[in-house]
């Protein structure tokens, strides 16, 4: 307890911090930079191997290894993303006794400032992507066709759930909540944002053309910047979902159906996020 000197008013009390957040820190991460980088990459690689299990099952039942069906692709992505979420949760749980959710940035931000920063971040990303695409010839992506999203209505909904709901949640927990959170303890925001953004871009090398990786790395940097500004991982998750919903709608050349994609994805991700936060306590 401090006592103010005579003639001076007592200083205001320090604001209460969320559980698991240290003074002066963004996330209250309890893991080191090496754990963030090598542990994060290890979790990502392990999740890829997990995704191979549904592919093997699909091949055993007559599916093609080079061109798997929508069902095989759906379960592969679902298992991979679920493995990432579970792996991050287990590692963070092992690194401290404080609540897991706030250490990963799962806390409510101030609503309207978060909306404003989200919109500004998205506009900056779209401008960068547009300028980059004019300077560098980027090939047309066939990810949705390869995933079987056009095979049927059920396949479209299933792949949409994986791309627009599970992927944003899993990737933000891993690259921003875990990797960026741990790196930020090391040298602050800039190195953490640059390294985590670069790793985010490289993580898509197997599914995206090499020419588009700088765009994805810039997007990863922007998501880290949004996390820094809002002190919450929620805006980054929602912006990731909005971006993927836009790419999904454009890739399938949807008309009015894009409204269903956006509304359904954001509603589903809200439900999954609330459930995940409860499990992460």
Structure keywords:
single chain, 281 residues, mainly alpha, 10 helices, 69% helix, 0% strand, globular, disordered N terminus
Structure description:
The protein has 281 residues and is mainly alpha-helical. It is built from ten helices and no strands.
Task: Please tell me what the overall shape is.
Answer: globular
Round the mean pLDDT to the nearest integer and report it.
87
What order do the helices and strands follow?
Answer: HHHHHHHHHH
Q: Tally the helices: what do you get?
A: 10
Radius of gyration over C-alpha positions, nearest whole angstrom:
20 Å
Unreliable sequence segments: 1-25
Coarse structural class = mainly alpha
C-alpha end-to-end distance: 31 Å
| Biggest β-sheet description | none
Strand composition percent: under 5%
Which helices and strands, and how do they pair?
Layout: H1 33-60, H2 70-94, H3 100-103, H4 111-135, H5 143-147, H6 153-187, H7 189-202, H8 213-230, H9 234-251, H10 258-279
């Amino acid at each position: 307890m401090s006592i103010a000197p005579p003639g001076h008013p007592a200083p205001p009390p320090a604001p209460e911090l969320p559980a698991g957040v240290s003074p002066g820190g963004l996330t209250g991460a309890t893991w080191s930079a090496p754990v963030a980088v090598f542990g994060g990459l290890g979790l990502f690689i392990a999740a890829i191997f997990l995704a191979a299990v549904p592919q093997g099952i699909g091949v055993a039942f007559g599916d093609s290894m080079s061109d798997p069906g929508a069902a095989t692709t759906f379960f592969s992505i679902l298992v991979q993303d679920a493995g990432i979420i579970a792996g991050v949760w287990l590692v963070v749980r092992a690194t401290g006794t404080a609540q897991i959710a706030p250490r990963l940035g799962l806390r409510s931000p101030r609503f309207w400032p978060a909306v404003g920063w989200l919109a500004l971040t998205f506009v900056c990303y779209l401008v960068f992507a547009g300028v980059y695409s004019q300077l560098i010839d980027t090939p047309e992506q066939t990810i949705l066709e390869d995933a079987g999203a056009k095979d049927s209505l059920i396949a479209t909904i299933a792949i949409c759930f994986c791309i627009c709901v599970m992927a944003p949640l899993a990737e933000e927990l891993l690259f921003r909540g875990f990797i960026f959170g741990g790196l930020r303890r090391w040298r602050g925001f800039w190195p953490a944002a640059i390294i985590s953004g670069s790793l985010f871009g490289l993580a898509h090398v197997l599914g995206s053309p090499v020419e588009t990786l700088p765009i994805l790395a810039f997007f990863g940097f922007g998501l880290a910047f949004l996390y820094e500004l809002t002190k919450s991982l929620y805006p980054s998750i929602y912006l990731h979902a909005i971006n993927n919903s836009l790419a999904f709608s454009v890739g399938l050349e949807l008309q009015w159906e894009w409204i269903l994609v956006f509304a359904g994805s954001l509603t589903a991700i809200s439900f999954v996020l609330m459930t995940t936060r409860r499990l992460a306590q």
